Amino acid sequence: QVQLQESGPGLVTPSETLSLSCTVSGVSVTSANYFWSWIRQPPGKGLEWIGYVYYTGSTNYNPSLKSRVTVSLDTSKNQFSLNLRSVTAADTAIYYCARFLYYYYYIDVWGKGTTVTVSS
Amino acid sequence: QPVVTQEPSFSVSPGGTVTLTCGLSSGSVSTSYYPTWYQQTPGQAPRTLIYSTKTRSSGVPDRFSGSILGNKAALTITGAQADDESDYYCVLYMTSGMVFGGGTKLTVL
Fold it and tell me: Which segments in chain A show pLDDT lower than 50?
């Protein structure tokens, strides 16, 4: 059974970098069938796609976040990660990692999500 | 970045039928955008209902169906049940990536 689990600090200081990891079990992140994705949801608001990474290391990011975001793979740990720089209170959200299925272009597996608060 | 539009809220009676739609601020939604529908209840991660316009995800009841209606993607719930009360998100896949709609809050009463 495929599972994704987010991990990282629950509190980040404004202007610092938000760093999260997603540990994948049941499938290799080097599979060519998937993009490994991050999505977030501010309190009381809708879902927002952040970006994804492919097994080749190629990436695609939401244009509105592109200047601050890096998504990368760690194949040795079967993980992928999110770095979001220069955070503000507007980056406070639940952050989900997810598996995005190539060819069909949809998310078929979600992590449970982790809450990140940006505050001093 | 294109804007994906959804009704902010909708209401349906138990046993009734409701159609939620997913449009584009400019242009029409087609199957080439691989419309996907997700259901989210409070405190939970989203769940995939429909992908590639009309394919039900594993375990999704057949009262949920997807289609293209006119220039929009549509999610129809036939025979609504109390536990269908949720937020529903449409997502379109574009070369720039995934674009989420703002979501529709469905009330069953």
Answer: none
